[in-house]
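Fold it.
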Amino acid sequence: MGKESDPVGRTRPAIRDTAQRTGTDRRGAVVAALMLTMALAALDSTIISTAVPQIVGDLGGFSVFSWLFSGYLLAVTVTLPVYGKLSDTFGRKPVLIAGAAVFLLGSLLCALAWNMAALIAFRIVQGLGGGALQGTVQTIAADLYPLKERPKIQAKLSTVWATSSVAGPALGGVLAAYTDWRWIFLVNLPIGALALWLIARHLHEPVRETTPRPRIDWAGALAVFACGGVLLTALVQGGVAWDWLSAPSIALLGTGLALVAVVVAVERRAAEPIIPGWVWRRRTIAAVNLALGALGLVMVAPTVFLPTYAQAVLGLAPIAAGFVLSVWTLSWPVSAALSQHVYRRIGFRNTAMLGIGTATLLLLAFPFLPYPGEPWQPALLMLLLGGALGLFQLPLLIGVQSTVDWDERGTTTASVLFCRQTGQTVGAALFGAVANGVLAARLGGAGDLDSVTRALDSGAPAEHLRHAVADAVHAVYLGAACAAALSFLVVLFVAPRRFPVLKNTGE
């Protein structure tokens, strides 16, 4: 890894790094636990989607069921920075165990829910634990393996995430149809218990130097949670539950911006801030945060809009439409696993630019597909897009994790994941507005995504609606291409030519 060595030989005086320090003689068992934990986090983002009719039929609350998804994702997103800082302060193991316990408690409570309000509240409890699962798993993976071996474990985690995300809706539908929707949450308990046992028994973290009793920035944690919750709620519900220029949207956005100022003020005064200033002052971390935040926007186009395109324009059944999307889960982890052979030669920055540059061209190609076209055409683009994004995301994640030592890696990893999650939330709101605007223009002001969904449920959509959906999705893909181009420019102009990899990261 000579191309990525630290130009000034920077090292940390505290804990020495990676596999030797994490001190587990049963690394395979820990990896199995991480994969199980990642599967839980990924499944619970999607598994409820196909069981909504059964849940609503049992509990009622159709008007607010979308909060089953939004509440969980909001809780995950806003807790990521908090768990990242806690894992750097107290260690990964206690944070992961505590987070998994909260997640499993939330799962049990969801299975016992007596109405929709209770189920939404318990989904938020799940999300409060889910933030620990996502961020801490990625951090432990970087702790376990030296730099040259990290693509293997990250590719495994990417495969688990992709497979679980795709399998979630099918599994949820099967459980709801043949058992009871409550089993969607109960199946988490044995899987989570096994993961907890493996972590507790086989993960042995290094003994750290004795330090004064750490001070927890509770004020900062509360401010971050409140600020993120308010702003993300405004983005998630704006244009859905109320108009963008309505009083609720303006009030939430105004409150969120005021809370941003509160967060900055609180964190500047904190001795151990939840979001330390160095996350944005260090050029490498800031560049990766911004680039992967833009990636979050990019991912919305295929994951949210391609299935509708496949059903409305190509005339595919839901299962076949899901396959058109799922092909990128085949190429993404393979490309990620092979990316080390590229970045070891041309560096993290150039590899990421190659990946996101290719992704930009592929996204730009989507609007030029023939109408109505054949299913293999968008599927081929998705296969190639997955390969391009595998070359982009993983080198940036591994690269930025390798520029910090153990006691900063949790915070760094969490900041990256937080930015990507926030990008997806912003992208869903932004591109949803774009798609609805195009549909309204094509249909004479009387159309949106909800009307398309209703038309699909009632049968084959009319030809003019198919054309309108094609135009709307094309506009979304052009927007995603702009987001990918923005990410390319961030990597080009903000990221350093050579990532300052620490010498003690086990090159």
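The CA atoms of residues 297 and 427 lie 4 Å apart.
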